[in-house]
Amino acid sequence: MFRVQDNDVHQCDSGWVPVFVDQDKSISLMSIGFLLEKPDDAVVWRGPKKNALIKQFVTDVAWGDLDFLIVDTPPGTSDEHISTVEALRPYKPLGAILVTTPQAVSVGDVRRELTFCKKTGLRVLGIVENMSGFVCPHCSECTNVFSKGGGEELAKHAGVPFLGCVPLDPQLSQSLEEGRDFIQEFPKSAAFPALAHIAQQILDGTSQRSS
């Protein structure tokens, strides 16, 4: 998505130097993908080794001054998720954003993640419903391919904020595949106001928490 997959991670006195997306160093990344010899290598590690690397990504990377540290995890409530929460706990994380799709199977997974957050004391900033309808690039009509409303109903039932819906948008998919700036290039796309609304709600929620 950022076209930095061929970059290398270097060492400095403070630890690993993250990979920077732009010359202004406004976004920095760290991924196990940067540490592999070949991009197609599988990471076949047992729990302790994976958990140790998660802690290193938090404590041994020279992040510098950050506005936000965002940890993108796969769905689930595994040992890795527990290790991530524990590694971040000393830094008082602002919370978690849970992403679902409208289908019942996905909503069920996120329901378990809500329970996980409750048991680990991690505040839920809100729920986002992704793939919420398909926007036709020709007529702009939205068709609910995977039904609609599962994320909003779950948020209401759990008593957490519903941040919004993101439709399936070919322009958004194309931007992600090609590593282009979707916000700058497609301000009139159907997904643009949805993403802007979600981002603003997250910023408002975190500012209230940190103030």
Name the helicity range: 25-40%
Beta content: 5-15%
Radius of gyration over alpha carbons? 18 Å
Number of helices: 7
Overall average pLDDT: 90
Q: What structural class do the secondary elements suggest?
A: alpha/beta
Q: What would you call the quaternary organization?
A: single chain
Largest sheet: 3 strands, parallel
Name the shape in a single word. globular
- Read across the widest sheet, the strand sequence of neighbours is 5-6-9
Give the low-pLDDT segments.
none
What separation lies between the terminal Cα atoms? 33 Å
Kindly describe this structure:
With 211 residues, the chain is α/β, with parallel strands linked by helices. Helices cover 39% and strands 14% of the residues. It has seven helices and nine strands. It has helices at residues 47-59, 79-88, 104-120, 150-158, 170-178, 182-185, 191-210; strands spanning 10-12, 15-17, 19-20, 28-29, 96-100, 124-129, 134-135, 142-143, 162-165. The longest helix has 20 residues, at 191-210.
